[in-house]
Amino acid sequence: MSERVKIKVEHNVERLPAIALRGLVLFPNNVVHFEVGRAKSIAAIEWAMANSSPIFLIAQRDMETEDPTTDDLYRHGVVAEIKQILRVSDELVKVLVEGKERARLLAVESNDQMLVASIKPAPVRGIKAEKSVEAEALVRSLKGLFEEYLSLNSRLSKDVVYNIVTNNDPVFLSEYVPANLLFKYQDKQAILDEGTLMGRLQKLVDLLKRENQVLAIEQDIHERVNDQMDKNQRDYYLREQMRVIAQELDEDEDTRFEADRYRQQMEALKLPQEAVEKLGKEIDRLSRMPGNSQEAAVIRTYLDTCLGLPWGQYTVDDLDIRRAENILNKEHYGLKKVKDRILEILAVRKLNPELKGQIICLVGPPGVGKTSIARSIATCIGRKYARMSLGGVRDEAEIRGHRRTYIGAMPGKIISAINTAKSMNPLLLLDEIDKLASDFRGDPAAALLEALDPEQNKTFRDHYLDIPFDLSQVLFITTANNLDTIPAPLLDRMDVIELPSYTRVEKFNIAKRHLLPKQLKSNGMEGMVTITNSGLYGLIDGYTREAGVRRLERRIAEVLRKCARQLASGDAEKISIGAADLEALLGPRRVKPDFYNRTNAVGIANGLAWTSVGGEILPIEVLVIPDGSGKIELTGSLGDVMKESAKLAVSYVRVHGAEYHIDSAVLKNADIHIHAPEGAVPKDGPSAGVTLTTALVSCLSGMPVRSDVAMTGEITLHGNVLPIGGLKEKSMAAYREGIKTVLIPKDNVSDLYEVDEEVKKAVEFLPMSDLGQVLKAALVWPKAAEKKSRSKKAAAPVAAGEHSGPLENVVQQ
């Protein structure tokens, strides 16, 4: 193509130099100018100018394509005549062209210099229908839509508007309108591709209608934005006026800038919509107030409290079960069942992270490690830890906060604890939940119902904040010594885990591994003082009596203080404390032996009682005074239920006295005095029924009660033994006092699963179903009566479920 190329006509196919346009569509009979930057396009223009040749202009489908092929170009373009070129630089040429005729692209060839297109003329069909009624209707619709377009878009030049408004030629309008209106190049190309006049007009009407709808929406958005900007400018102007007025009045505080600071702080937090609206109103109120007013100070305190909460701040749980188990074993000795329960909870949370927060209640005597194990759980899972004590709280406002109408109002304990932890998902310990009280100021336990309910606490509302706060991710752990004083609706929301009393061996290991090293470090005597194993056992047996180890720690600290004096005065460099040294340091043994039957006494039976600090031995004494009036005397601060048990025991003995060689005449006239020692301590409950009956039968029959037997159980009028509670604590008391045999109700055998293994090895538990079995096992029978009883027992068949051997056989059955 080095010589002049003429348009060759071979079967109506022409070959012309071509330019692929980016985002531009040319129509016939229209003039357009554009810039050319690609080397092949510049070469095509220069060749066409040099050879006085027309050029084929066609749009490419993707504007990013650098070297287009036939598939990258649309099917229709325009043959154009170059009117003028202006070389801006070596790499940029400005071109002015005029479209001549529509043509169809057959193929495009690319050599090293330029693109050459094989095209075929493609005139618009249906020109003869331009004077039809349908064409006239489409032209009218087009002009009507164009007038609407002008009202929405005033950026068109006057010449374009004039040419469209004054011309009614459908052919002219079908090419001039899309060429000069601001349509997308894909829409313009769709009109150029349409081969009929009526189809082109119809597409143009549809396109202009859609464009008017888009422009109307854009105008509406623009007007709303302008209105908002005008409002902001107005607010800014008014605030500036207020600032100047405040300066003229010598105001101390510029509350406007303070309000802006609060507003920026609020926008930086992840707050729920209700909180944003509430705090926004308070900030606006603050901006309109004098800085030194009392109300402004109240609002500042409120905003500081609300914005200081850890909105959206969460810690990631570390649910490594192995690591958690190692931490629990390192920080706590024993408590195997408690640790297993906690690890199970962590395992479930690991498998289902979306599980709602469980409410755990740790129940046990004082000093067994409830608070410390809660702190260990927080360490295990990597959560922040906060503690709030509920002991003695009797005002509902301490839980839910005070309303801001009161002077000195403040948030409740829960929100304060969250603020202290600086996390939305801390471990929150509610200590001593069983010590809550209620009075005329409300019921704090009822106020806790919402906070401890996983279905409600997502929108917990503190009275002071008055905005919803999400507590659903908080892990609540509560502690209690006694479940009886916790209201049933509140207890129903908690998963109860019981912590038992410690055995003698467990106390020794806790003292050796934890308490002694801790006290040696805190007293600065590491490596200088040692307490031998016998010394620790001596402290446990002779100077403490408790379910936990808190008093034991104080005794260890007392011993170390005595040693510190010797070390500080230079009397010794190293000290070793054994059991024989304790009396010299601490004085005589402080634990006095309890009063109970130790010598197979008549009229004294060893019972077992449950207290909030563990189990205790509860001896029952009975004395019969002959030649009396038949009255019954009950002493020892007995409650109503225990007095009723005593009356049941007397009635049973009157009916069954002959079986135990009791003279009914003596029983009728004698006065009976029943007493429970430690009379200053109130006692109540039905579980002393078997003890009362045994002591009464022993006193009336003269048969001693075995000193190595303790018993517990409720009785009925016909002598049946009913189950009781607190077996674990009662068995620990028997073990501590060296009791070898414990008589328990038969229905309590399943509760032995919770009893410590060390206790079950040292104590034999005998299940009883009626008082006859209890009396046979507890009384020291005369030889003849014992032989007679054995012969009757051998002759009679054993009833189903009746105990006839050691406890191991019962459990296996």
Automatic annotation (TrEMBL):
Induction: By heat shock.
Main localization of the protein described in the UniProt heading: cytoplasm
Keyword Protease listed: yes
Keywords, sorted A to Z: ATP-binding, Cytoplasm, Hydrolase, Nucleotide-binding, Protease, Serine protease, Stress response
Chain sites annotated for binding ATP: 364-371
Region feature Disordered, mapped onto this chain: 784-813
Gene Ontology molecular function: serine-type endopeptidase activity
Domain Lon N-terminal: 16-212
InterPro entries reported for this sequence: AAA+_ATPase, ATPase_AAA_core, Lon_bac, Lon_bac/euk-typ, Lon_lid, Lon_proteolytic, Lon_Prtase, Lon_prtase_N
Signal sequence residues: none
Residues annotated as catalytic: 687, 730
Keyword Cell wall biogenesis/degradation part of the UniProt annotation: no
Matching Pfam families: AAA, Lon_C, Lon_lid, LON_substr_bdg
Domain spans labelled Lon proteolytic: 599-781
Domain of life: Bacteria
TM region(s), chain numbering: none
Function comment: ATP-dependent serine protease that mediates the selective degradation of mutant and abnormal proteins as well as certain short-lived regulatory proteins. Required for cellular homeostasis and for survival from DNA damage and developmental changes induced by stress. Degrades polypeptides processively to yield small peptide fragments that are 5 to 10 amino acids long. Binds to DNA in a double-stranded, site-specific manner.
PANTHER family with a match to the protein in the record: ATP DEPENDENT LON PROTEASE FAMILY MEMBER
Record text on subunit structure and interactions: Homohexamer. Organized in a ring with a central cavity.
Similarity field: Belongs to the peptidase S16 family.
Name of the protein described by the UniProt record: Lon protease
The species this protein was found in: Allofournierella massiliensis
Gene name linked to the record: lon
